[in-house]
Amino acid sequence: MIVIYGIRHRLDPIKARLSAVIHECMMSVLGMPEDKRAHRFMPMDAEDFYFPGGRSDAYTVIEINMMAGRAAETQRALIKALFARIEARLGIAPVDVEIILKEQPPHCWGFRGMTGDEARDLTYRVNV
């Protein structure tokens, strides 16, 4: 599950393209299947979205929730791919992008009536 926050007038026009870039990175770096996209956009009014100094109104926060198991090198590669591709494809500078990886143990995930540690039919690997 990925949650993306940004100022409404900047985020709304790029949602589909940003989703495509994020998922492209998830597929190329983590090996996620093409049909495994779970993105939630949270466009906010400017008065509800405070952010650090030195950022523009393009400031975007991307929270990636995933089952634990990816190596630190893999996580770094994902973050760097996101920065590079978001800048190249959407023109948002890395200073205006914040990426947070949140890992939870597989038993803390529930989907299709089971917990993540019970799932034996995933079409992708968690330990990469």
Explain how this protein is built.
There is one protein chain. The chain has 128 residues and is of the alpha/beta class. The protein has one domain: Macrophage Migration Inhibitory Factor (2-Layer Sandwich). Helix content is 30%, strand content 25%. The protein has 3 helices and 6 strands; from the N terminus they run E-H-H-E-E-H-E-E-E. A 4-stranded mixed β-sheet has the order 2-1-3-4. Helix 3 links the parallel strand 3 (60-67) and strand 4. The longest helix has 19 residues, at 72-90. It is globular, with a radius of gyration of 15 Å. The protein starts with a strand and ends in a 13-residue tail after the last strand. The model has no long low-confidence stretch (mean pLDDT 93). It comes from Halomonas organivorans.
Throw out a few tags for this protein.
globular, Phenylpyruvate tautomerase PptA (4-oxalocrotonate tautomerase family), Tautomerase/MIF_sf, 128 residues, single chain
